[in-house]
Design goal:
The chain has helices at residues 3-49, 61-70, 72-106, 108-121, 126-137, 141-165, 169-177, 182-219, 225-234, 238-266, 268-283. The chain is mostly helical and 284 residues long. It folds into two domains: 1-53; 58-283, MetI-like (MetI-like fold, Orthogonal Bundle). Helix 3 packs across helix 6 and helix 3 runs antiparallel to helix 8 (182-219). Mean pLDDT is 83; it is low at 275-284.
Amino acid sequence: MNEEPIETLEPFSRSHHRDAKRRIRRSVRAIVPCLAVATLLGLWQLVCTLHLVPSFMLPSPMQVLDALLADGELLAAHGAVTLAEALMGLAGGVALGFLIAVAMERFFLVDAALSPLITISQTIPTVAVAPLLVLWFGYDMLPKVLLVVLTTFFPITVALASGFRSVDPDAIDLLRTMGMGRWRIFRYAKLPAAADSFFSGLLMAAAYAVVAAVVAEWLGGFEGLGVYMTRVRKSYDYDSLFAAVAIISGVSLLLMVIVKALRYGCMPWKRRGSAVMTEEGKDA
């Protein structure tokens, strides 16, 4: 008589315990990075307060914050230019990387010809390419966007090419026996299989985009965070220089968060698979 309620409540108890554990893990993942950043900033402030490093070499976080607030409007204007260059270049890099990866997957000769060239293109330092682009295309936005494209297309191309090759050959054979042609096999098998790799490459490209735009501005331009940093560096205003670095880091992190949100929204099957694997691991 007393055993039935216990058996009925036992699955509910396990489920409740798993939910509580999941909530705790989410909280830890959210809190620990914040504590790490806060600790780093606290140590930085302590080093500056104790004058272990001269203030003209390393301004304190409070001095950087003051510079950020004092030059807020100017930094926002320059930051908007850099963000526009990064977004346009990132879009161009994604489009170029996608087209190259599809061509390499479709044609063996294209793959054999472009693979070494793409690898070689990444051995050329960005600071060597940027002045040439400025020389050829002027000081406007175009050379900055082109440099971002050249920087971001590589991780997209490599990630997609790897994803296309990861498709199970048996799945392709099955689709062929069902009468599907190359385009439908690409659409229903290869493209979904490469989605995870694509977003991994896009995450890297988003991190590179802002940095590439700033490097291009640093070497030649009229506006943007790179130009702002060049000006404050020449005037030895390192508080403002660190403020610009903080803006660059913040914008890069924001783009990465957006990419992760897109990945989460565009790959529902991945969410379900991860949830099932997590539950199985916990049950084991």
